[in-house]
Design a protein that fits this description.
The protein is about 20% helix and about 35% strand. With about 160 residues, the chain is α+β, with helices and mostly antiparallel strands. The structure holds the ligand Nc1nc2c(c(=O)[nH]1)N[C@H]1C(S)=C(S)[C@@H](COP(=O)(O)O)O[C@H]1N2 and molybdenum atom.
Length: about 160
Amino acid sequence: MKKTIPVIIVILVLILVIFFNQNDPNIIITQGENSQEIKAEYIYSYEDSLTFPSVIRSSGEKPVSVEFKGIELAEFLKSQNIDLTNSKMITFNASDGYRIAVKTEEVLEHKNVYLVYEMDGEKLKPKKNGGTGPFRIVIRRDPFSQRWIKHLEEILVE
Ligand SMILES: Nc1nc2c(c(=O)[nH]1)N[C@H]1C(S)=C(S)[C@@H](COP(=O)(O)O)O[C@H]1N2
Ligand SMILES: [Mo]
């Protein structure tokens, strides 16, 4: 009987941990042996963000003009001490299993590849809430959105 209370406390703590982990999105950046986790709060409050107009072309639907807010990916990686000097390829993994590889060259192009977290002034919603987020890669010079990875989970620098 005495053991019941500690057991209940442990279970409650576990439930809370699972609950908060689910509600605290993040991105994993992996380069070689090193992986680091970037919390959503850090991304949302990153100083050097940009709001830019864009057009979403979904298959079978009319193009929609939107305004995205995000961080230039090359700059963001630099702020996390990721050195792209010898990198050839950056692979993006999404939570639904979608995966796209982009040449580092393209990521380094000025104002092209963005880590987006807001659309029309609202945070991108996760897949389970019918959104395209919480994070999405937007390649501004690619007018077709096949490579605009939704539900971004991991950035793999190769
Ligand atoms: N995670 C993830 N991202 C994705 C896809 C996907 O299936 N999963 N489909 C791609 C394709 S083929 C297109 S056309 C667009 C669709 O974007 P939309 O949902 O805004 O229409 O997302 C791209 N990014
Ligand atoms: Mo597509």
